[in-house]
């Protein structure tokens, strides 16, 4: 699936954007199938805003987002649900786990709401890989933020997608866990021939990015 950003300018950022260069805002940008895109930008420059625009959580912007030539703004509720079930999976910066559900229930709830891609035992495989088997039975609110981040990563990987969108997904993980998580994400994207867009504050070498864009 190809994503096209055509002169996107978020309304709250309009004035700020006139004062600096960006590879993304107010540009014609084509993100091709299976690309690995890194968006690097300082705090407050709009990373989360961009992620929310692409997931159609906000509409306060000028310009157009096209998904294989279909304008995101014109999708009806059913088409949007299908897009999120089949084509775009996301790891929010604030994770958005249900605090009163266990880590496993958070993952499972999302899995069964999609056309299940994997059996539930895949949760255990991924959890073992990321070192969180022992907290799967715990309420999400009782897990550390780094544990919750790994739950959110697994939840996103248990569904089908053509694009994986990740908003500072490793902010609370140590190097060892980042290496494990990035290897798993890379393998899952390759399996699906999917691309991803990752935002972060700094440079990193977690993936072989096809493009590095400044916001
Ligand atoms: N709905 C809104 N109304 C007014 N201003 C907003 C709105 N949403 C975001 N902003 C402003 O837009 C700017 C970008 O916010 P955003 O959360 O996208 O930044 P970010 O790059 O993700 O930051 P961080 O790295 O700190 O998470 C901020 O200055 C924020 O205050």
TrEMBL record:
* ATP-binding keyword on record: yes
* Keyword Nucleotide-binding part of the UniProt annotation: yes
Question: Residue limits of the ABC transporter domain?
Answer: 3-215
Q: Name one GO molecular function term.
A: ATP hydrolysis activity
Q: Keywords on this record?
A: ATP-binding, Nucleotide-binding, Translocase
What highest taxon heads this organism's lineage?
A: Bacteria
**InterPro entries xrefs:** ABC_transporter-like_ATP-bd (IPR003439), ABC_transporter-like_CS (IPR017871), P-loop_NTPase (IPR027417)
The record's family statement is: Belongs to the ABC transporter superfamily.
Q: PANTHER family this protein is in?
A: ALPHA-D-RIBOSE 1-METHYLPHOSPHONATE 5-TRIPHOSPHATE SYNTHASE SUBUNIT PHNL (PTHR42798:SF7), LIPOPROTEIN-RELEASING SYSTEM ATP-BINDING PROTEIN LOLD (PTHR42798)
This chain belongs to which protein, by name? Putative ABC transport system ATP-binding protein
Protein species of origin: Parafilimonas terrae
Q: What is the lineage of its organism?
A: Bacteria, Pseudomonadati, Bacteroidota, Chitinophagia, Chitinophagales
């Amino acid at each position: 699936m190809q994503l096209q950003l055509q002169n996107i300018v978020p309304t709250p950022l309009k004035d700020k954007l006139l004062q600096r260069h960006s590879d993304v805002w107010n540009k014609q940008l084509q993100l091709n199938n299976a690309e690995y895109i890194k968006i690097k930008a300082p705090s407050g420059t709009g990373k989360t805003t961009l992620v929310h625009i692409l997931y159609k959580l906000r509409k306060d912007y000028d310009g157009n987002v096209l998904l294989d030539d279909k304008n995101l703004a014109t999708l009806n509720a059913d088409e949007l649900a299908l897009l999120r079930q089949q084509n775009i999976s996301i790891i929010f910066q604030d994770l958005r786990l249900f605090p009163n559900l266990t880590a496993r229930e958070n993952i499972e709830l999302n899995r069964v709401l999609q056309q299940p891609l994997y059996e539930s035992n895949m949760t255990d495989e991924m959890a073992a890989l990321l070192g969180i088997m022992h907290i799967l039975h715990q309420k999400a609110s009782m897990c550390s933020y780094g544990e919750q981040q790994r739950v959110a990563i697994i939840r996103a990987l248990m569904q089908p997608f053509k694009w994986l969108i990740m908003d500072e997904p490793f902010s609370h993980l140590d190097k060892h866990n980042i290496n494990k998580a990035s290897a798993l994400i890379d393998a899952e994207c390759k399996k699906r021939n999917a691309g991803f867009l990752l935002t972060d504050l700094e440079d990193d070498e977690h993936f072989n990015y096809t493009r590095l864009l400044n916001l």
